[in-house]
């Protein structure tokens, strides 16, 4: 599976940010008792605020934050320095996604309520969401200074340290959490962090420890699979993904993961069988259209396996089986790479650098038979490349990238490469850079005339791109395709 750091971390963080709304409201109400008796506030002011509190309380409990905000504004006008009002106002607008705006209210609240643990925890969560990790860490550590065993503060400290790429420090806090709350959920939290830290052996041990207690703990099953895959134990990893579909057959995501890894391991016939089960179980799934389109590619490659014998030297016969050998006549091919837009979901400035390296790798592999020059305008190019975030915009659905080429007989005249910045099957999953290296090299191979696929999972041109390094068979194939240009 394409289990990116962000996906694993989000899973850990979501388990960790359960600030109790009712307790925060309790702080809000209880602190007004002190305000009502304060000599600095006239009795009529206290009475007016108390009346508003009685209206705000049920709105907050019912999560009607925009309505509560209106009344909280009125309360702030009456009592502008009241820390409890600021705390609740900050929380109300935080829950509406207005994190930046809530900062000043939490700061005002904590001046008057420095020991209000849940207010400080909520403020830390706001700072984390704003990417102000050092400041968030300060808030959580202040809570731990008051109570070193406070579970939520331990969780969030560990989570923020991961975001700051301080994985070893994060493990220390997760271990402390496990001492305080030795639950399966907290064992899973530690295992996730160990996996995030690439300590796969330790993470795998924790995941398996969880499965001893609960053999059907799905997150632990998927965790074992991910660790085993990262450790190079691919067959065993796939067996865990198969186990996930048995534990919860109604969970579509488990089936999609299994399909993904059947392709990665070259088990094309198993992929076809699994796709048929998915179609039967989830007939209304929007993923079916993509899977159906991809099934044609997989079925064609299965058929090629029977028509073309495996060649240990190259795979040119397979790659040119459909429409014959096609090549570029130009020795230097102009390439335009569209700049990565910062607004593109999942976009990464490194993507275009990786794409340029892909062209350079193929040029080197061809031993000078083809080469490329990068141009500034698409009108100057014969190969164009662009990144998109919406899989529905791909000319061929069901993949993470595609290349369409035009030809005049055996001569390629134009090629367009379109690549996704996110995973088409799991849109919430960022693409790891190693996988981006694999798909860019795969699509450049198509643009050079390798229309079909290799039958070896280790090759860049295998049906499903997984390898980011050209093999000797990749090199031999491109050199044989362009042999006449040597």
Give an overview of the whole structure:
The protein has a five-stranded mixed beta sheet with strand order 2-1-3-5-4, covered by helices on one side. It is built from 21 helices and five strands. Among the domains are: 164 residues, Tetratricopeptide repeat domain (Serine Threonine Protein Phosphatase 5, Tetratricopeptide repeat); 170 residues, Collagenase (Catalytic Domain). The chain is 59% helix and 7% strand.
Notable traits:
7% strand, Serine Threonine Protein Phosphatase 5, Tetratricopeptide repeat, elongated, five-stranded mixed β-sheet, alpha/beta, Collagenase (Catalytic Domain), 486 residues, disordered N terminus
Overall form: elongated
Task: Give Rg in angstroms.
Answer: 28 Å
SSE series: HHHHHHHHHHHHHHHHHHEHEEEEHH
- Specify the structural class: alpha/beta
pLDDT under 50 segments (min length 5)?
Answer: 1-43
Mean pLDDT: 84
Instruction: Count every beta strand, where a strand is a DSSP E run of 2 or more residues.
Output: 5
Helix content: 55-70%
CATH homology-level superfamily of the domain at 316-485:
Collagenase (Catalytic Domain)
Q: Give the count of helical stretches.
A: 21
Per the CATH scheme, the topology name of the domain at 316-485 is Collagenase (Catalytic Domain)
Strand content: 5-15%
Q: Alpha-carbon distance between the termini?
A: 41 Å
What profile does the largest beta sheet have? Answer: 5 strands, mixed
Gross CATH architecture of the domain at 316-485 = 3-Layer(aba) Sandwich
